[in-house]
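Re: weekly structure request thread

Next one in the queue (239 aa):
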Amino acid sequence: MKSLTSGMLILIFVFAMTFHGVDSSVFYNAHSFIIVVLGTLGIFALSTPPVGILNVFKSLMKLSVPDKSVDFYNEQLLAVNKKRDVQLSDSHPLIVYAQELWIKGLDSEMIPALLTRRMQELNGDTLRVTSALRNLAKYPPAMGMTGTVIGLVTLFSHLQPENRSKLGPSLALAMTATLYGLLLANAFLMPLADRLHLIHLHHSEVNQYICKILLLIHQGDGESIVEDEINDSSISKKK
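Done, posted below.
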């Protein structure tokens, strides 16, 4: 969360210093904004199912919420190791799922496969969000170029000797669409996609770790063995 806020503040500072002393009104063009921003959203709706769109917005909203620490989940795993049906608050989805399977009394040999499949589903959810956002980042520059071409066509269609003095300002307005597209893709969408990818890698590692401990608990290897595995695990030792 701190790095997200710091990054946004740095970008705001960079843009403020870049445009300092420049007439900011030359960078505003409603037509360019509509083509790039609304056009990108339209393509997003065309290319992504409603569930995928909802998951992307949910993931972006969660960026401001800090993740639970591994120590928090270790405490839950130790509690489950002592009593499988222990009541836990704000538990990890894999732990909740494992407890549901144990309570239902399913065939013991089926539970490892079900837990592994659930872990893969969780990993796939975060990966699909990252892929959707990265795919979306491809379109703003294209929409920006589209807006620029439209602006140039309009400009040249009205190019007359008496209008030469307006050539520079008109060309500048036409280029704003490209500027909007580049900023939207490279200063917003791609950085967020990269951040979500790193979060996906972290969640995948945590999910695999929790699944491994739950399988040890399921096998009934003993409380001491599970505790030793938690204490010796590399992910538990990360600061």
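The chain has one domain: 28-237. The chain has a mean pLDDT of 86.
Next request, please.
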